[in-house]
Amino acid sequence: MQDPYKLSECIIKKIKSETKDTNTYTLAFSNGSFISEEEFKPGRFILLSIFGFGEAAFSLSSLIRDGTFETTIRKVGNFTQKLHSCREGDKLYMRGPYGEGWPLDKAEGKDVLLVAGGIGLAPLKPVILYIAKNRSKYGTLEILYGARTPNDMIFTSELEAWRKIPNSILRLTVDAVPRGVKWNYKVGVVPILFEDMETTPDNAIVMTCGPEIMMHFVVKGLIAKGFSEDQIYVSLERRMKCGIAQCGHCQIGKKYVCKDGPVFAYSEIKGLPDLTI
Amino acid sequence: MIAKVCKESDLAIFFNKLLEEYDVAAPKKKKSLYEFNEVNSFEEVTLDYSTTILPPKKYLIPQKENLLRFAEGEVAFEEPQFKKKQVIFGIHSCDLNAFLLLDKVFMDKFPCPRYAKRRENLITIALTCNNPSETCFCESMGTGPTLSKGFDVLLTKINEKYLVESGSETGEKLIKLIKGKEASNKELEEKRRVVELAEQKFKRKIDVRNLPELIQKNLNHEMWRLLGEVDLACGQCVLSCPTCYCFDVRDELNLSLDGGIRYKEWDACFLLEFAEVALGGNFRRDRAARVRQFMGHNLGWGGASQYNVFNGEFKCVGCGRCIKTCPVGIDITEVAAVIKGEKNVTEVTALKNVLASIGEKNARSI
Questions:
Q1: Is the link from the previous residue into A103 a cis peptide, with omega within 30 of 0?
Q2: Chain B CB contacts of A273 below 8 Å
Q3: Which of A196, A227, B6, B238 has its CA 20 to 30 A from that of A78?
């Protein structure tokens, strides 16, 4: 019987600073173990492990290539603090990937609207990469991304490349622009981008990730624009101790975020308790 | 299946034979109450007990259990080692049904080798309950006072004798050790009468029909807010629940910081930290939300529903321990009655004081 808590060793190949508190880590399995692209489907998550500090769940922010993958992590607590003190070449342990990812199959032949807030762009990045790689399978790709300030935007070096993906639109906004910072795009919370949005409900799938309160207004705004509840997919975040629907920490009503999610159609989670969406 | 009838003195002899070969846990007196614990003779066992203080889940999911040990570059997973098989003697049907539910959580899609090892090492000698306590309602949940499968051996006290039935091959072998005669139809009929008599003793009941749907519809019921006012968030109900399986996983470094253990430990959704996330976020900060989570999981969202389609199997097995242990008198059967519309919030025992202090009219507008 395989122990569900079995760990795989990985090496930090590269650390890229995204903002003052967010890094992207490129990880590779040290024994060259193979995990298929299907396993690493965009939207799934892994549990990273540092002995003495425990385990924490993080979404993947890249596709897997030659056994290497990326995860983008903001320094917010005990575990991530420790992780941010790690250097290239250091060893980490991981389990997974777990969970249900983004509905990329369902989105085939449709326009795709991505709505991201802050570090919520991280789990959506593999969707962008996947669509770019399989461009003919999807319609228009429209990305709406908001952050607190221009300095809090992640993946800034990649945004230009995303604009160049054929038949794609990138719209940006920030909540506020500090004095002295140059900013050529919108100012306001994410739903402000709906004003110019081109995607219509006719033949589209929406995928959104960000703070729950942001997703609350995104869902509300999109429904007002005629999108249906089963067209909108959200990615939820909860602390997880097991990742396999046993520890109970991520339970919301009858749903377990680790097993039934983290990606849910809004219609699946609407009306569940202890949810602010 | 084998069914025998024996005298209590023969059961004692059988018990002593078990002691020779196995580790045996059984219900015994603890002051005025009862507990499951290791016993060394049949005299220590109390078979006419009502409910033990803590459920026997500790034999399957220990309060604290090591997952692995780590030291400089080495990781070693741990599994329990047993010298002898563990017999659990005299377990009531509510608690055994709880085991069957835990099996679904820990042995289905992601089987846990530690749980599986403990489970395989366990021999269950169940007991038809003929002494339901005031707080018991297993009959409502379909989990008692007796059961027809899931045990190795089932004991039922009929008159001054014991009817002993097997429910597995292990059970059949064990029953052969008992001196007694084959049960007659009359004695099997007598068991039915004993069960019926026990069924008449239940003081608490829940009408489970449509309960999951009604809980979902009543997530904003005023009762949750009011229960949140009186609830202490002590988590005793969770610790004493035979099916509460949630746990935390923690690391502990040794003094020299070069190694340590990763262990799992019982956790409780009633505690503030349970639904905490980074940056001080908490999805169940209010006690009302935590009461609703406990009650909702027990009565609304299905037992092991994470891997199995909900088919009317509740997490709650009706043992009544949460009612017994609650320091402020929150009663899950009253909660169900309010949700079902059979009872008014003002009639809920735990709320009487708070309602009296703020006035019924104000309480309604909370």
A1: no
A2: 219, 289, 292-293, 296
A3: B238
**B7 phi and psi angles, rounded to 5 deg:** -80, 160
Q: Running DSSP on this structure, what letter comes out for residue A113?
A: E
Query: Which amino acid does the sequence have at B185?
Result: N
CA separation (Å) from B24 to B34, B116, B232? 16, 19, 36
pLDDT tier for residue B310 given thresholds of 50, 70 and 90: low
Cβ separation B113–A53 shorter than 8 A? no
**In the CATH scheme, what architecture does the domain A111-269 have?**
3-Layer(aba) Sandwich (3.40)
- Tokens, residue A83: 């992780």
Spell out the domain ranges in chain A. 8-98, 111-269
Residue type, A73: I
Contact A241 B249 (CB under 8 A): yes
Nearest to B247 among A6, A93, A247 (CB): A247
Cα-based torsion angle of the residue sequence B111, A57, A54, B303 in order, rounded to the nearest 10 degrees: -40
* A4 closest CB neighbour out of B112, B305, B310: B112
For residues A134 and A236, the answer to whether their CB atoms sit within 8 Å is no
Cis peptide before A273 (omega within 30 of 0): no
Closest CA to A196 of A183, A186, A182, A205: A186
- HSE value, Cβ hemisphere, 13 Å, CA-based, for A62: 17
CB atoms within 10 A of CB A91: 13
Min CA distance, B344 vs chain A (Å)?
A: 23
Mean pLDDT for the stretch of residues B285-298: 96
Share of chain B above pLDDT 90, in %: 89
DSSP assigned state of B96? H
Choose the closest CB to B75 out of A7, A53, A252. A7
Ramachandran angles phi, psi of A197, nearest 5°: -55, 140
Predicted ipTM of the assembly? 0.92
What stretches of chain A adopt beta strand conformation (E)?
A: 8-19, 22-29, 45-50, 54-59, 68-74, 91-98, 111-117, 141-147, 168-174, 186-187, 204-209, 232-235, 251-252, 255-256, 263-265
Structure tokens at A263: 């990606």
Amino acid at B127: L
d(C-alpha A77, C-alpha A239), whole Å? 12
Is CATH 2.160.10.10 the right assignment for the domain spanning A8-98? no
Mean pLDDT, residues A223-244 taken together: 96
Please report where in the chains the tokens 């990763």 appear, as a residue.
B262
Edge-to-edge order in the sheet of strand A263-265: A186-187, A168-174, A141-147, A111-117, A204-209, A232-235, A263-265
Q: Do domains A8-98 and A111-269 have the same CATH topology?
A: no
Q: Do A246 and B284 touch (CB under 8 A)?
A: no
Alpha-helix runs per DSSP H in chain B: 8-21, 93-106, 113-120, 138-141, 169-175, 185-199, 211-217, 222-230, 236-239, 287-299, 321-325, 332-339, 352-358, 360-365
Distance CA B292, CA B197 (A): 34
Read off the pLDDT of residues A44-80 as tens digits, 9 standing for 90 and up: 999 999 999 999 999 999 999 888 999 999 999 999 9
**Residue A7 CB neighbour total at 10 angstroms:** 20
**A97 Rama class: left (phi>0) / alpha (psi -120 to 50) / beta:** beta
Instruction: Enumerate the H helices of chain A as residue ranges.
Output: 78-84, 125-133, 156-163, 212-224, 257-260, 266-269
Q: What is the pTM of this model?
A: 0.94
